[in-house]
């Protein structure tokens, strides 16, 4: 069999959204991902190692933490297209690295006015990265059920409660935590939640916060924490934005978060596809490369097709976001489709690798484990289905 191409992007549909500038950014991100991120991921993921600081520094130099940050704050001043293009390339190597760019990439309004001039440029450089503490043991899909409380004490706020799944709580430079500042109103549970920015020393948890890393099966490269806030005292200026508007703030960037997750899912699926194509040529059974078997060839065809579908929808949702067109339902659709697709495609990729796929010697198992998570975080598949069906049928009673 003469290899036609091992690069699926060579046969990808041409998208009018991919301008020369965007193709150049994609090329830069691809080069970085394949040469700087992939070898590190292959070495560190299976041993639970953390994303190295020098890799983060290089990403900062390339501007990956400030793609969407306005130029006047030191960012690249680009849009959501460039953001997802970079995220897809990074996820093709290591999803955690594609995820860490979301801990920067803030825009105007991400920080309250008194912190913006200081924190936004630092965020764009990668020097001021976020951990996001919204989920709780009893508040996952139902975030309005959160019970962490913050009360005023003089000029300060005192926070008490339990948070769950706070990724990067230790490595970040600040934790954005959501807490009730008014008692729960059962008739309007999303009201009375506020957000706080707790600045801290990198590598530590803030005073008054204790925790343990969760024993997770993937998404390595950084830790995900269970946190306990015990009389955690923060200055009055830690209140981010208007008091009581935390739920709305958390929902503000949801469309961008969902296309970013779609990009991560697509990157993982592409990793599985590219590695599987290479394996089809390399592995011989019954005296010929396994890629001669139609059963394997058709898997490759389906994997490539599903990736193309997901990416096309992702670009259309990005176009809507950039045009300011309301698109929360299509954003849910692409998050749902891309993450379900990534699980299918990475699982097929693992199957093509046979027993080798079930070892940590091949990256396909990492793509499969990480793809599994894309169906759970940033709103589970079932929550996306609920949003989409509510849009079509009206809310269920
Ligand atoms: C590795 C990892 C990292 C994470 N990082 C962060 C982070 O940094 N910050 C943060 O705040 N959170 C984070 N999360 C939390 C993540 O967002 C939640 O896990 C997710 O929202 C689901 O909540 P849950 O796990 O409590 O599941 P649950 O809400 O308990 O859901 C359990 C099951 O019930 C289904 N279900 C629930 N409600 C409905 C409904 N109404 N209709 C149909 N089905 C429903 C769900 O789809 C799911 O299948 C992380 C999670 C993981 C696993």
Do you know the CATH topology of the largest domain?
Butyryl-CoA Dehydrogenase, subunit A, domain 3
Structural class: alpha+beta
Q: How much β-strand is present in the residues?
A: 5-15%
Instruction: Give me the strand/helix succession.
Output: HHHHHEEEEEEEEHHEEHHHH
Mean pLDDT: 96
Q: If classified by CATH, what would the architecture of the largest domain be?
A: Up-down Bundle
Characterization of the model:
The chain has helices at residues 20-44, 53-62, 80-93, 95-100, 113-125, 246-252, 254-282, 294-323, 328-352, 364-374, 381-393, and strands spanning 130-133, 149-153, 156-167, 174-180, 193-199, 209-213, 224-234, 239-240, 284-285, 288-289. With 397 residues, it is an alpha+beta fold. It folds into three domains: 8-125, Acyl-CoA dehydrogenase/oxidase, N-terminal domain (Butyryl-Coa Dehydrogenase, subunit A, domain 1); 130-245, Butyryl-CoA Dehydrogenase, subunit A, domain 2 (Beta Barrel), CATH 2.40.110; 251-393, Butyryl-CoA Dehydrogenase, subunit A, domain 3, CATH 1.20.140.10. Strand 2 and strand 3 form a beta hairpin. Helix 9 (328-352) packs antiparallel against helix 10 (364-374). The termini are far apart. The model has no long low-confidence stretch (mean pLDDT 96). The site of flavin-adenine dinucleotide has 19 residues, from strand 1, strand 3 and helix 11.
């Amino acid at each position: 069999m003469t290899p036609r191409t091992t690069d699926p992007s060579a046969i990808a549909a041409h998208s009018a959204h991919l301008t020369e500038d965007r193709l150049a950014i994609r090329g830069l991100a691809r080069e970085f991902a394949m040469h700087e991120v992939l070898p590190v991921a292959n070495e560190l993921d299976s041993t639970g190692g953390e994303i190295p600081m020098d890799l983060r520094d290089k990403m900062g130099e390339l501007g990956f933490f400030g793609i969407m940050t306005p130029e006047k704050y030191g960012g690249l001043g680009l849009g959501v297209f460039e953001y997802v293009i970079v995220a897809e390339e990074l996820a093709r190597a290591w999803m955690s690295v594609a995820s860490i760019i979301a801990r920067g990439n803030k825009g105007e309004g991400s920080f309250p006015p008194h912190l913006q001039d200081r924190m936004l440029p630092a965020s764009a450089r990668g020097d001021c990265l976020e951990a996001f503490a919204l989920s709780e043991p009893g508040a996952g899909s139902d975030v309005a059920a959160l019970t962490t409380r913050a009360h005023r004490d003089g000029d300060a706020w005192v926070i008490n409660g339990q948070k769950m799944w706070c990724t990067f709580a230790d490595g970040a430079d600040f934790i954005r935590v959501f807490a009730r500042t008014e008692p729960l109103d059962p008739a309007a549970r999303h009201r009375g939640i506020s957000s706080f920015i707790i600045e801290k020393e990198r590598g530590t948890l803030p005073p008054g916060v204790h925790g343990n890393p969760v024993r997770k099966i993937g998404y390595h490269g950084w830790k995900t924490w269970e946190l306990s806030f015990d009389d955690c005292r923060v200055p009055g200026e830690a209140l981010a934005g208007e008091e009581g508007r935390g739920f709305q703030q958390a929902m503000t960037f949801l469309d961008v978060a969902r296309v970013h997750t779609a990009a991560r899912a697509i990157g993982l699926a592409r990793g599985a596809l590219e590695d599987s194509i290479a394996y089809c040529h390399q592995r011989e059974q019954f005296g010929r490369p396994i890629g001669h078997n139609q059963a394997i060839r058709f898997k490759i065809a389906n994997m490539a097709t599903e990736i193309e579908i997901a990416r096309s929808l992702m670009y259309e949702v990005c176009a809507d976001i950039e045009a300011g067109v309301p698109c929360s339902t299509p954003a849910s659709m692409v998050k749902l489709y891309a993450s379900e697709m990534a699980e299918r495609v990475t699982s097929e990729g693992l199957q093509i690798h046979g027993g080798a796929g079930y070892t940590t010697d091949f990256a396909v198992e990492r793509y499969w484990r990480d793809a599994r998570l894309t169906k759970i975080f940033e709103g589970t598949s079932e929550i996306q289905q609920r949003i989409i069906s509510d849009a079509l049928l009206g809310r269920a009673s």
